[in-house]
Amino acid sequence: MIRLVEDEDYEAVRRVAEITWEHTYENLIPASTRQAFMETAYSKKMFDVKRRESIFLAAVTGSRLIGYINVVQQEEAELAALYVLPEHQRAGWGQKLFDVGREYVSVEKKLMTVYVEEGNAGAEAFYQKQGFLETERFTELFMETPLKTIIMKKQLHR
């Protein structure tokens, strides 16, 4: 089931973030940077902001939260996060989260953008399958760590 993230989901969302970040980025982002990011981006305060100010949906099987999507709507829609626990990947949950999340995006938004770290081949392939196209590559300083980032964009046809 895909549903809105609720206040009581905080610990489960943080657990999914910690596990998926370790699994996805262990060879791309240093452990100290990953930990520092978790402390800021997945604080209770930031969780509450995401719930209030963006599209924030959870994938739940049984009573267990196994993934989530977060889409920020500004000038365009930015897919800020889409994570599914490793043992539930390749079972359609990412697709379900993406499809339902897209339904929540305002009809005025014509583009969706996602930032993918170079070397995250699984994410890059998933977004290509969704119709995203690479528009730029650049190096950014992420919490004092240089990362090579790919910007991918998708036209939203309504």
Please outline the helices and strands:
Elements: E1 2-4, H1 10-25, H2 31-41, H3 44-53, E2 55-61, E3 64-73, E4 77-84, H4 93-104, E5 111-117, H5 121-129, E6 133-142, E7 145-155
Parallel strand pairs: 4-5
Antiparallel strand pairs: 1-2, 2-3, 3-4, 5-7, 6-7
InterPro entries: Acyl_CoA_acyltransferase, Bact_Acetyltransf, GNAT_dom
Organism: Marinococcus halophilus
Keywords: Acyltransferase, Transferase
Number of domains: 1
User: What structural category characterises the helix and strand content?
Assistant: alpha+beta
Shape: globular
Unreliable residue runs: none
- Major beta sheet, specifics? 7 strands, mixed
Give a quick rundown of the structure.
It comes from Marinococcus halophilus. This protein has 158 residues and is an alpha+beta fold.
Task: Tell me what the structure shows.
The protein is α+β, with helices and mostly antiparallel strands and 158 residues long. The chain has one domain: Gcn5-related N-acetyltransferase (GNAT) (Aminopeptidase), CATH 3.40.630.30. Helices cover 37% and strands 35% of the residues. It has five helices and seven strands. A seven-stranded mixed β-sheet has the order 1-2-3-4-5-7-6, sandwiched between helices. A hairpin with a 2-residue loop joins strand 6 and strand 7. Helix 1 packs antiparallel against helix 2. The longest helix has 16 residues. The protein is globular and about 35 Å long. It starts with a strand and ends with a strand.
